[in-house]
Design a protein that fits this description.
This protein has helices at about 15-25, 50-60, 110-120, 130-135, 135-145, 160, 165-180, 200-210, 265-270, 285-305, 340-345, 350-370; strands at about 1-10, 35-40, 45, 75, 85-90, 90, 95-100, 155-160, 185, 195-200, 220-225, 225-235, 250-260, 275-280, 305-315, 325-330. The chain is α+β, with helices and mostly antiparallel strands and about 375 residues long. It has a 5-stranded antiparallel sheet with strand order 14-13-12-15-16. The radius of gyration is 21 Å and the shape is globular.
Length: about 375
């Protein structure tokens, strides 16, 4: 199978993408022919040479990089078929399926998925709708709340309110009156805890809002809960699952538990501090709660029309033991030590087999889409 692995991206999670893609490139089956396409922080696409792929496969300390050579820029053609979509260095790149390892904006939000849809190539992960609505935490919460799923109390503040001092002051007052302190403040459409902060008073709240608005035009303000952090992996296609194609059937793995050594599971705890958190799989819960979380994760996944893969995150209130949905990540971290693949492996789905499983589901999703009518003629 010809696999185009796309990584990097115009995103605050660019560096995380390099690590995830490196792990996939290193572990993907040798039966596949892999082509690397990197995306710079400015959004330019480049074809990487085979030497880079061989380097990360043969050197466990090597990491994929973005080499911005103008001679290797990639162009995308629409409607010419999957083997005639990506063009670089005077020829088309063979492509049976795309594995986009693009965390965050312009990769996880439906934008690049739209490119793949318009060009007619199979790809791993959620479609345009699933990607876009899950990237926006406010939209996700609205959909989950309407389905009767448990969410943390919150308010959403928009840029328009910040642009008007009276509206801004009122929004802050309303948030504090509804939720009280402490609060968690985070951009609606950012990941890896970029721009996220905890606020214990009005001054900290104001600073936290200003930082969050550097990352997005909508900011989520949540009631801070003294919570255990639980995560659950899910695969399958919530819209077109077919028992005759096992890779499309919804499956939940884990759950696992993150025990942060920091005040909360922030960017440093996730990526910079090797002792920033302890991971426990399975989570230290009784069988009834483990099963409840697995079933709720599948319901949450289905409610937002997810497909391919996602990591569904939960909070368990330490005081009341109430379980809340936190968020869903449709392109979660994919290093060999990331929670998503580790939970799958705990259920018997090894890392290399997981990659094949997702590629198979991508082809099944493409076939289901191609069977639909697009014209009356």
């Amino acid at each position: 199978m010809n696999v185009v692995l796309i990584y990097g991206g115009k995103s605050g999670e660019h560096e995380i993408s390099l690590m995830s893609a490196t792990s996939i490139a290193r572990n993907i089956s040798a039966s596949h022919s892999v082509t690397l396409v990197s995306v710079s922080k400015q959004g330019k696409w480049h074809l990487e040479n085979n030497e880079l792929l061989e380097k990360v496969r043969n050197d466990s300390s090597a990491t994929l990089s973005v080499n911005e050579n103008p001679d290797n820029e990639v162009s995308v053609f629409f409607g010419k078929g999957k083997d005639n979509t990506f063009f670089a260095c005077g020829k088309f790149i063979p492509c049976d399926v795309v594995f986009p390892v693009l965390h965050g904006t312009y990769g996880e939000d439906g934008t690049v998925q739209g490119v793949f849809e318009m060009s007619g190539v199979p790809y791993v992960g959620c479609d345009v709708l699933g990607s876009s609505c899950t990237m926006d935490k406010d939209t996700t919460k609205i959909m989950w709340h309407n389905a009767g799923l448990p969410i943390v109390p919150y308010v959403c503040i928009r840029r328009a309110q910040v642009n008007d001092s009276k509206l801004y002051d009122q929004a802050m007052e309303d948030a504090v009156a509804k939720l009280g302190f402490p609060l968690f403040v985070k951009p609606c459409s950012a990941g890896s805890s970029d721009g996220a902060n905890k606020a214990s008073n009005k001054k900290e709240f104001s600073f936290a809002l200003m930082e969050a608005f550097q990352w997005d035009n909508k900011v989520l303000v949540e009631k801070a809960i003294d919570a255990r952090e639980i995560e659950c992996s899910v695969t399958g296609n919530s819209v077109t699952q077919d028992p005759s194609k096992p890779c499309t059937v919804l499956k939940a793995y884990g759950p696992g538990e993150i025990v942060p050594k920091h005040e909360f599971y922030d960017y440093d705890a996730k990526y910079n501090d090797p002792s920033g958190a302890e991971l426990k799989i399975p989570a230290l819960l009784d069988d009834e709660k483990l099963e409840f979380i697995r079933e709720t994760a599948k319901k949450a996944y289905a409610q937002v029309n997810a497909s391919g893969l996602s990591r569904v995150d939960f909070f368990i209130d330490r005081k009341t033991n109430e379980i809340y949905l936190n968020e869903i990540n449709t392109l979660p971290g994919f290093t060999s030590i990331s929670m998503f693949p580790k939970m799958c492996e705990s259920a018997g789905l090894k890392y290399a087999d997981l990659i094949d499983y997702l590629l198979e589901e991508a082809l099944a999703q493409f076939d289901a889409r191609q069977s639909l009518c697009t014209s009356r003629v």
